[in-house]
Design a protein that fits this description.
The complex is a heterodimer.
Chain A (H helix, E strand, L loop, with lengths): L1 H9 L7 E8 L4 H4 L6 E5 L2 E8 L1 H13 L4 E6 L16
Chain B lengths: L1 H4 L8 H11 L3 E5 L6 H10 L7 E5 L7 H16 L16 H13 L5 E6 L7 H12 L5 E7 L8 H5 L3 E5 H4 L3 H10 L6 H11 L3 H12 L4 H10 L4 H11 L3 H10 L5 E2 H8 L4 H10 L4 E3 L6 E4 L1 H14 L3 H15 L3 H10 L3 H17 L3 H9 L10 H13 L3 H14 L5 H22 L5 H4 L12 H24 L4 H15 L3 H14 L5 H17 L9 H13 L3 H14 L6 H17 L3 H17 L7 H14 L3 H9 L3 H4 L2 H13 L3 H12 L8 H17 L3 H15 L6 H5 L3 H6 L9 H11 L20 H7 L8 H8 L3 H15 L4 H10 L10
Parallel strand pairs in B: 1-4, 1-5, 2-3, 3-4
Antiparallel strand pairs in B: 6-8, 7-8
Helix pairs in contact in B: 4-5, 5-6, 9-10, 10-12, 11-13, 14-15, 15-16, 18-19, 19-20, 20-21, 20-22, 22-23, 22-24, 23-24, 24-26, 26-27, 26-28, 27-28, 28-29, 28-30, 29-30, 30-31, 30-32, 31-32, 32-33, 33-34, 34-35, 34-37, 35-37, 37-38, 37-39, 38-39, 39-40, 44-46, 45-46
Classes of the chains: A alpha+beta, B mainly alpha.
């Protein structure tokens, strides 16, 4: 709770958003899709794949919606290559 | 209505009920499965079946519950309701200063008091979004009394740490796969809902829904009124859409327009009644629709026995909300505004603020929250206030001075003083731009919080002057404004009086009394008890009888509301403990001290912990445990040094610390510390006494006598007369060692004379050697023989029994002359000797003695003395 508060108070941000693909069983209709305005839907067979740029808290928000709407989650995949590129200048690495 | 014709019932799922019965024999059962799996339905059929052998305490966690206290109050309420006769359960009282640990203890003790066992059922536990509450719940679950069991239902596995129970085989789980409908159950559900469907159709439906309870129920509702059920199932099977969305769309489509409209528009409420639904739909007649929907088992459930409030199944409501936003986007803020208006008219402020925020009316929401945050906090919803505060978006309203003020209050309540100061600074810097009608309110609130912050930091001297304007009452406002402001004013008076009390300023008692009266008028027992607790503390300079009465009054009020061990009552608890220790009633004093320690467990403020160490030190010293006393006084000295300004008892603590060091054989350390003191401390009477103690232990009575001279003649400032009692005793000890027995006796008699009004015992016990000093005092030379006897008892190691148990009062009050005679009865003086002491005739003394016996219903001198001691009539000072 305290971490949560501090984060809000001091505007600490998540790392940069990453592209995710979230596969859900069944075709989502307009009503359910309106719960995921930041994601682009595409039908793959009997599934729907939602893609979009999400930071960590947005991702958990999406997962909470999936849970709340009783959707059948099949897979979550990160599409962007990992952030550990040499030019990121991560000085903490040994 | 279409739904009216459909009558699907909850079918009795025998195998599942038996599984739950088996599970419930373990200590804890967790039903963990996704939305719509039929958890609630299972719990309801299980609980409501006629042959249910167990007593159940049933609760459903409120949607998005972030307030640990609200959760626990609901849980305790459910436990009480299960055990009390119908309608007689006393709802537990909320407190602004929630102590989760104490709450769990309370629930455990009420559960332990249950006879015949109980099963605690908590549904929708995943809605509890409070790590604290979950941790507390873990403690409850792992400590359930023997015949109490728990059944929890949740959408997802929760961080409850129940490994112990699992290892002990006391944890049972029912998961999604167990809840899935079998084909046979699907058939039964369809039959019970009056649906005619072929076996092939039923099997197809079962496959398509994968036995998912919500899907089957939704399908049953649509199928019940359908002309061609087989075709419905075939089309549903052929569709790739998700089950819930498909079926809800189907169901909605089949509803008449007014039902559909009602469902959509009211979906944004967490709970709904007929009146609210009428307001949101703009049409009358909503209540019969809600009743019909519940009868049709269409995901609408009534919340009360009278069936006036309803809520929608969460999954159903979530889908309806999405549909509402899609179909009528421009209506959404309007509906929230209407709902907010209804809630504010019905005094449900938290709901009103939530809907105002949802409407996007941030400025209005900020003002509402500012106006009510204090009342909400008083009503035990501090965490709700915090959650509402966090719901504001970053930006303009976040800089709102009134919101900054609420943030400051919350930080302060959690002991985050720097954070509170920062928020206060934001509030102050924006105060100029606040509209004039809210200026005064804002300034009062700022001043009040500053005082409170200063108290917690021990930074007192600077703030009282600035806050003097709090003294003047507010006028010329509406009743509601005055009520709001009165709460604020009580808080201001309380904070002002508290600071003044710590500084021993005379205005403290007036302000606190005024605050208590106003709090009572406002119907705020919590504030009243807090004012009274501070008043008790501030009256420590009064006769002990007055102080004790005030302590007990404050404690009694707090106890009536279940706050007897809360931090807020600690000032009264510690004052009472100190008072009892001063008079040698150590055992009783220790009991109150223990209770104070329990009460301040959650409190991080140094102010009250400082007092706890001082009184512990006094108690240890009184019992002759010097090393323990030294530890306590050192801890008090250390805490005192962390306060910004020196506190009222600083020289007392230092004095006792040094004296105790000398007594345990460390006069060198004491000397070194003495040399480092600033002038103000060094010249105080308390430190003067300590000097004398050091000199005496060093075998230098002449130097000791010199050290106390300035205290005796009044040149050295003292905290109170109690210091002087010690001073005279030390002078007596020094004189005796110097061979002046007569002077020593006189000094002892002076100490007794000072101690008599309050019957102080502690200074004699703490001042080692005073036992011999008093024992040497000829009985006929003292007017304080009764007190002397008490003191010698304690010096020899006994604790005086608590005397303020209020024995029955005398038949008639004794006159002043009779009281004067009475006080000679414990001495060895004969009646003629008493007569000559009082310069009256022997006859007069005889008359008084006769009257005393009659009024005290005593037969002889010793029983009169005994009775007088019980009634505390032997003290010479005013007793009130």
């Amino acid at each position: 709770m305290s971490v949560h508060l501090a984060a809000l108070d001091h505007g600490v941000m998540d790392p940069a958003p990453v592209r995710y693909a979230i596969r859900i069983h069944g075709h989502l209709g307009a009503t359910v899709l309106s719960a995921f305005p930041a994601l682009v839907p595409q039908h793959h067979g009997a599934d729907t794949v939602l893609t979009g740029l999400l930071d960590r808290s947005a991702l958990y928000g999406v997962l909470a919606e999936v849970e709340a709407l009783g959707l059948d989650l099949v897979e979550i995949r990160q599409l962007t290559p990992q952030r550990r590129s040499p030019e990121s200048g991560d000085s903490r690495s040994p | 209505l279409t739904v009216d014709r459909a009558k699907p019932r909850l079918i009795s799922r025998g195998d599942l009920l038996a599984a739950l019965d088996r599970a419930a024999a373990r200590k804890v059962t967790i039903i963990s499965a996704p939305a719509g799996s039929g958890k609630t339905s299972l719990l309801r059929t299980w609980a409501d079946r006629p042959e249910q052998p167990h007593r159940l305490a049933f609760m459903q966690v409120q949607r998005d519950q972030r307030d640990a206290q609200q959760f626990w109050l609901a849980l305790l309420g459910a436990v009480r309701q299960a055990s009390a006769p119908p309608g007689r359960a006393e709802p537990p009282a909320a407190t602004p200063n929630f102590n989760g640990r104490a709450m769990v203890d309370r629930v455990l003790s009420e559960l332990a008091g249950q006879r015949g066992g109980l099963i605690l059922v908590i549904d929708d536990l995943h809605e509890l979004i409070s790590p604290d509450a979950l941790a507390q719940l873990t403690r409850l679950l792992t400590n359930l009394p023997g015949d109490v069991h728990a059944v929890l239902a949740t959408r997802r596995d929760l961080p409850l740490h129940l490994q112990q129970l699992r290892l002990a085989g006391e944890l049972a789980e029912i998961r999604a796969a167990d809840l899935r409908f079998t084909e046979r159950e699907t058939r039964e559900l369809l039959d019970a809902s009056g649906v005619t469907l072929s076996d092939a159709g039923a099997a197809l439906l079962h496959r398509r829904t994968e036995g998912w309870a919500a899907g089957l129920r939704l399908a049953a509702i649509s199928l019940a009124g359908h002309r061609d059920p087989e075709r419905f199932v075939a089309e549903f099977s052929g569709s790739d859409r998700t089950v819930a969305e498909y079926l809800i769309a189907e169901m909605l489509e089949r509803q008449p327009d007014d039902v559909k409209d009602l469902l959509l528009r009211t979906s944004l409420l967490d709970r709904v009644n007929g009146e609210l639904a009428d307001l949101l739909t703009g049409r009358p007649g909503s209540e019969p629709i809600l009743l019909a929907l519940e009868d049709a088992n269409a995901f609408v459930v009534s919340l009360d026995a009278g069936r006036t409030w309803f809520r929608y199944h969460h999954l159903f409501a979530d889908l309806l909300r999405l549909e509402l936003r899609r179909a009528l986007p421009e209506e959404v803020p309007v509906l929230h505004r209407r709902a907010a208006g209804w809630f504010i008219r019905h005094g449900q402020v938290a709901d009103a603020i939530q809907h105002t925020q949802a409407a996007g009316d941030w400025a209005d929401a900020a003002r509402l929250l500012a106006d009510h945050s204090f009342s909400l906090t008083m009503d035990g919803q501090a965490q709700t206030v915090r959650a509402l505060l966090l719901a504001f978006p970053p930006g303009a309203p976040a800089d709102d001075p009134e919101l900054a003020l609420i943030r400051a209050g919350l930080s302060l309540a959690r002991g985050r003083l720097d954070e509170a100061a920062a928020h206060l600074a934001v509030a102050e810097s924006h105060a100029e731009t606040t509209p004039p009608d809210r200026q005064r309110r804002l300034r009062v609130a700022i001043a009040s919080l500053k005082l409170s912050l200063a108290t917690r930091r021990g930074q007192l001297a600077s703030v009282t002057e600035q806050a003097k304007f709090l003294d003047s009452p507010v006028t010329g406002q509406s009743d509601e404004d005055i009520a709001l402001d009165n709460d604020l004013r009580v808080l201001a008076l309380m904070n002002l009086g508290t600071v003044e009390g710590s500084l021993a300023l005379a205005d403290a008692e007036r302000h606190l009394r005024e605050g208590a009266v106003l709090a009572r008028e406002n119907g705020r027992p919590y504030l009243e008890a807090r004012c009274l607790a501070q008043l008790a503390f501030a009256s420590r300079v009064r006769p002990f009888a007055t102080t004790r009465r005030r302590c007990r009054e404050a404690i009694a009020l707090a106890e009536r509301h279940g706050w007897g061990s809360e931090p807020m009552i600690a000032p009264a608890l510690i004052t009472l403990a100190a008072n009892l220790v001063w008079t040698g009633e150590f055992d009783e004093g220790e009991r109150w001290l223990d209770r104070t320690e329990r009460a301040v467990q959650t409190d991080t403020g140094p102010d009250i912990r400082l007092l706890v160490h001082i009184v512990s030190g006094m108690l240890q010293a009184g019992r002759g445990r010097r090393h323990e006393a030294l530890r306590e006084f050192s801890a008090a000295e250390h805490l005192g040094s962390q306060l910004a300004d020196s506190h009222a008892l600083a020289s007392q603590v230092t004095g006792w610390l040094l004296a105790t060091q000398a007594r345990v054989g460390l006069p060198g350390e004491a000397r070194a510390y003495l040399a480092a003191l600033d002038d103000e401390q060094a010249n105080s009477g308390e430190v003067g006494n300590a000097r004398a103690v050091i000199s005496l232990t060093e075998g230098n009575p002449a130097e000791a006598l010199a050290a106390v001279t300035a205290v005796q003649d009044g040149t050295a400032p003292v905290i109170g007369y109690v210091t002087l009692v010690e001073t005279h005793l030390l002078a007596g000890l020094a004189l005796r060692e110097l061979g002046d027995q007569r002077g020593a006796n006189q000094a002892a008699e002076r100490a007794l004379g000072l101690a008599e009004p309050d019957r102080l015992v502690l200074p004699f016990v703490m001042t080692e050697g005073s036992g011999e000093l008093l024992a040497a005092l000829p009985r006929h030379e003292t007017a304080h023989a009764a007190l002397l006897t008490d003191i010698l008892d304690v010096v020899r190691g006994s604790s005086l029994a608590a005397k303020d148990q209020q024995p029955s009062p005398p038949a008639e009050e004794l006159s002043g002359a009779e009281l004067r005679v009475l006080r000679y009865l414990p001495t060895n003086l004969s009646r003629p000797e008493i007569a000559s002491e009082l310069s009256v005739s022997v006859n007069t003394v005889n008359t008084h003695v006769r009257n005393i016996y009659a009024k005290l219903q005593a037969r002889d001198r010793s029983s009169a003395v005994q009775r007088a001691r019980e009634l505390r009539l032997l003290s010479a000072g005013p007793t009130r």
